[in-house]
Q: What sequence folds into this?
């Protein structure tokens, strides 16, 4: 069987103006985030990764004032566009969106897709404490549906009230160990309950970390909601129809098996979460994962190529 094209979808960078604004200090991790050239491609080559779909690091421009967000999102997308042009076939982009101004964010998504050739957008969780199910953000999803590109919902730290109630005594749990999961799982569930997918039935959403436990919970959530609220379709039907999952930061055979069982292998895509995870362990894991060679090829790149029209 031919060697599959290997595509990764949750791979980050920091644009210069946002780094300066946030006062990011030099570190080995920050050095990787700054790089859109030889360091990144060398790390890809070591793991046999053909293409990264790159996105601005958390929180991107989402906690800025609207005017600054618009200006800096555009600058970030322009920087990434130049890197994609300089590395054809190795890099692609997800747009940074100035979500504090939803209309401008929709327009920036259209510019990034139509003029810069980006493959969709990545949204970094909350915007000034608001989830994206808020009606004010509908223009973003309306434009994504019209452009037929996916929106990747990425974790961000939970709401301050949750941080205080859940993690004040155990701050180590507030990020990737648990807080990110709670924030993103809640975020994606709220999108379904808000009626978003009834308004935009072609909308596509990507979630990393194998759905932040959603596949494990899908039966229970669907069963309980069916007895408590009226929805046009079953909760699980919305999830299986509108969501795709990536393996970013979730190199687990058990989680992969559950995700495939609940979603179908065609909804699962390979990712690393570079540079927060290293490329080589993720590649070695999927090379040895208990799936057929046909399914492995689909996860490594075939599904992403189809969804993103690569």
A:
């Amino acid at each position: 069987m031919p060697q599959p094209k290997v595509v990764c979808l949750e791979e980050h960078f920091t644009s210069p103006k946002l780094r300066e604004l946030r006062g990011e200090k030099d570190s080995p991790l920050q050095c990787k985030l700054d790089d859109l050239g030889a360091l990144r491609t060398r790390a890809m080559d070591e793991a046999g990764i053909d293409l990264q779909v790159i996105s601005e690091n958390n929180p991107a421009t989402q906690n800025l004032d609207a005017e600054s967000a618009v200006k800096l999102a555009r600058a970030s997308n322009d920087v990434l566009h130049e890197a994609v042009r300089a590395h054809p076939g190795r890099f692609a982009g997800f747009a940074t969106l100035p979500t504090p101004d939803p209309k401008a964010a929709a327009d920036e998504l259209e510019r990034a897709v139509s003029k810069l050739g980006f493959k969709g957008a990545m949204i970094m969780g909350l915007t000034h404490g608001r989830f994206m199910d808020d009606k004010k953000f509908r223009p973003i999803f309306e434009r994504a549906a019209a452009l037929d590109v996916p929106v990747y919902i990425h974790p961000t730290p939970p709401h301050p009230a949750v941080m205080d109630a859940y993690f004040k005594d155990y701050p180590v749990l507030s990020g990737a160990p648990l807080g990110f999961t709670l924030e993103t799982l809640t975020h994606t569930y709220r999108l379904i309950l808000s009626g978003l997918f009834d308004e935009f039935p072609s909308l596509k959403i990507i979630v990393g970390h194998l759905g932040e436990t959603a596949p494990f919970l899908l039966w229970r959530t669907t069963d309980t909601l069916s007895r408590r609220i009226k929805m046009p379709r079953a909760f699980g039907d919305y999830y299986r129809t509108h969501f795709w999952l990536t393996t970013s930061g979730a190199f687990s055979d058990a989680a992969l098996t559950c995700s495939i069982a609940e979603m179908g292998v065609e909804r699962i895509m390979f990712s690393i979460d570079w540079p927060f995870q290293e490329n080589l362990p993720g590649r070695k894991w999927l090379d040895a994962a208990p799936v057929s060679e046909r399914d492995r090829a689909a996860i490594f790149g075939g599904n992403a190529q189809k969804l993103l029209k690569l």
